[in-house]
């Protein structure tokens, strides 16, 4: 198996036995991202919209470290602490994708997330 670890200092460093992303063949799998500001290590949580934007910026940084963009994303997983926030999260999330080529997605409400955040997102991308 050909497995390459993808890392960048433009996204939060892993806290534990995992990596920001793993590339195998032409498939990139990211770890779930939360709204940690990679420069300060602080959570961005003023609003669900700002939190989601930081999450997506963290995902973007990891994609860029693998030399891909959101156009390469084929699947996303969104975990929410409160499904009532879905429309606000979806609006920010949607601004990162072209609606015509948007990936497959699942959104799940969960009982709790790391550091008690409201949203966590991971993606799978295919390299050209």
UniProtKB/TrEMBL annotation:
<dbReference type="Pfam" id="PF01042">
    <property type="entry name" value="Ribonuc_L-PSP"/>
</dbReference>
<dbReference type="InterPro" id="IPR035959">
    <property type="entry name" value="RutC-like_sf"/>
</dbReference>
<dbReference type="InterPro" id="IPR006175">
    <property type="entry name" value="YjgF/YER057c/UK114"/>
</dbReference>
<protein>
    <submittedName>
        <fullName>2-iminobutanoate/2-iminopropanoate deaminase</fullName>
    </submittedName>
</protein>
<dbReference type="GO" id="GO:0005829">
    <property type="term" value="C:cytosol"/>
</dbReference>
<dbReference type="InterPro" id="IPR006056">
    <property type="entry name" value="RidA"/>
</dbReference>
<dbReference type="GO" id="GO:0019239">
    <property type="term" value="F:deaminase activity"/>
</dbReference>
<comment type="similarity">
    <text>Belongs to the RutC family.</text>
</comment>
